[in-house]
Specification:
By secondary structure, the chain is α+β, with helices and mostly antiparallel strands. The chain has three helices and ten strands. Strands 2-3-5-8-1-10 form a six-stranded antiparallel beta sheet.
């Protein structure tokens, strides 16, 4: 049974980092280890120091049990041509920066490509996705670093990892968790 994922992404939703620099940085700081394929890696030697785990004894499997096992902790890159909205079955919609209430009632009403979003409560116009208040269970971007098999709320990146990502992209980064992702 899949646990979920922890995802990191630039706050600038249309920013696609230089992928070679991103790969090299994640490997240099020990976050990623050996390549699984072109866009997936085993965890690196410093992985456990670059995430803060919650709870008294989280169970994180760092290697597969068999050749067809994909439910272990590893890292991959997700990228899209346009900003992609990711959320879970139980995610609550993003909120208005002015009144703090949900911009839409359900995710089905939200169009990430609309270009302008009006709060249904206070009528504030949001002209950029970055202006909306995102929770830690949804996000929108063209590039995501995904850490697989992390239960929602089980881990979060430490400041030094976020600072490395910000340094190579000149953009703020954030994180969120997915569980039972809606496609």
């Amino acid at each position: 049974m899949k646990k979920g994922s922890l995802l990191l992404h630039p706050l600038e939703t249309e920013l696609l980092p230089d992928l070679e620099t991103l790969y090299a940085t994640l490997h240099r700081i020990g976050f990623t280890g050996d390549a699984i394929d072109e866009q997936s890696w085993m965890v690196g030697e410093q992985f456990l120091q670059l995430l803060t785990f919650m709870g008294c004894s989280p169970h994180i499997r760092l290697e597969p049990d068999s050749e067809d096992d994909h439910d272990y902790c590893h890292i991959s890159l997700r990228q899209a041509e346009a900003p992609q909205l990711l959320y879970s079955n139980h995610s609550r919609p993003c909120r208005c920066r002015s009144c703090g209430k949900p911009v839409v009632q359900t995710w089905k009403e939200f169009d990430a490509g609309a270009g302008i979003w009006r709060c249904r409560h206070c009528a504030t116009l949001h002209k950029r996705l970055e202006e909306l208040r995102w929770r830690n269970d949804s996000g929108v971007a063209v590039c995501f670093v995904e850490i697989h098999s992390i239960y929602p709320g089980e881990a979060q990146p430490v400041d030094s990892l976020i600072k490395q990502l910000e340094k190579i992209t000149s953009s703020a980064w954030r994180y969120f968790h997915l569980h039972d992702q809606v496609l």
